What we know:
Elements: E1 3-4, E2 10-11, E3 14-15, H1 20-35, E4 44-48, H2 53-66, E5 69-74, H3 87-101, E6 106-110, H4 116-129, E7 133-138, E8 144-146, E9 152-154, E10 164-169, E11 176-181, H5 186-196, H6 199-210, E12 214-224, H7 239-258, E13 264-269, H8 284-298, H9 304-316, E14 333-334, H10 342-351, H11 360-363, H12 366-375, E15 390-391
Parallel strand pairs: 4-5, 4-7, 5-6, 7-12, 12-13, 13-14
Antiparallel strand pairs: 1-15, 2-3, 8-9, 10-11
Bound molecules: nicotinamide-adenine-dinucleotide.
Amino acid sequence: MAKLIIEPRLRGFICTTAHPIGCRKIVEEQASRARRCPFRGPTSVLVIGASTGYGLASRVAAAFGAGAATCGVFFERPAEGERTASAGWYNTAAFESLAGEEGLLVRNVNGDAFSTEIKKKTIDVLRSDFPPVDLVIYSLAAPRRTDPAGVTHRSVLKPIGSPFYGKTVQTDSGAVREVALEPATEEEIAGTVAVMGGADWLLWMEALRKADVLAEGAKAIAYGYVGPELTWPIYRFGTIGRAKEDLEATVEKIDRILAPLGGKAYISINKAVVTQASAAIPVVPLYISLLFKLMKEEGSHEDCQDQMIRLFREGLYCDRPLPDGAVDDSGRIRIDGRELKPALQEKVIQLWPTLDTGNLFVLTDFTGYRSDFLRLFGFGVGGIDYDDAVESNVPLKGLP
Ligand code: NAD
């Protein structure tokens, strides 16, 4: 047991501390939003990458919106001595306790999802006391992956073909500065595809099918991003975009795995939101700050939780025919339409060249960005006295 006064400790785009009560309050708030939007959806869900960002929001929507049993896989750190647990650990502890109060089945597996060992461990959990899985959500964002042959691949965020010159904002200092990134080497491109592409998703689906833990009609979904032209040199046409192309191409292979069950695989193209992963991408934090200002002004702003509630209710489990534009020509579910609305993006293009450190707080919602960033770690949450010492050692019960 360790009672600590916990403050945010920022290092670049990372925060090395997290606040258990703050994380809990945020998950509570996410859960109550999901409860207010019930839908007839999945009953038994495996979420790979379940502890933060889009994966956590998906888990919350499935559990509190549809009453689903959820098994979450993630890579998080428990508290140790003076060191707090990671935010994803506290989020999961909060999720587990709230779902438990509602009698929902919760199982967790903490470890490297890329490894064969964690896939086996997860399958053991699913086999022992979990209903056949009717939805698999793949929501990993990771800097490296060791494949089953023992080779470690690294993911980089770089342009392909030519250098990238643009601007970005430093989350800690608020300084807007120019960035220049050399194009990725072939090895770096291949490394990023190996980490963030579809290879591991396919391995998961093959293993789950072989173990016979999937239900009739099971669906699988992974998340992608397209974004506006402004971000294309670093995102869509960069190394991460190449990996996302590979992820999208994997849908066909997974469709073949699921076909005998009458199931199907999907990609959902989501909106840009503040997460630990997006904070690491050059340009994106500044773009998000501007985007949020414009979307909040026109009342169309959404966070991870809003997006996942909408994905389930208006996309994956919609009982009406989907409206025009909900699925694109490549068969991807699109919940990023509000972000990419032409009139809004014209404003982005107009304002972008004028952004600098001096006008950051006027022209963009950097205040909101920074507040969302701190909230990822449980800081800046109303009703918490951050001068109080709190128990940092929070157990996770649902681990095998
Ligand atoms: P995130 O950093 O919030 O979440 C990543 C999750 O992956 C966490 O639960 C973490 O524990 C888990 N994880 C990482 N490495 C792991 C490992 N080795 N083993 C087990 N678990 C591991 O990221 P996010 O932004 O929510 O991204 C999730 C997906 O959504 C990604 O595919 C991302 O490209 C996509 N996406 C994100 C955005 C955005 O703006 N953030 C937009 C569109 C799509």
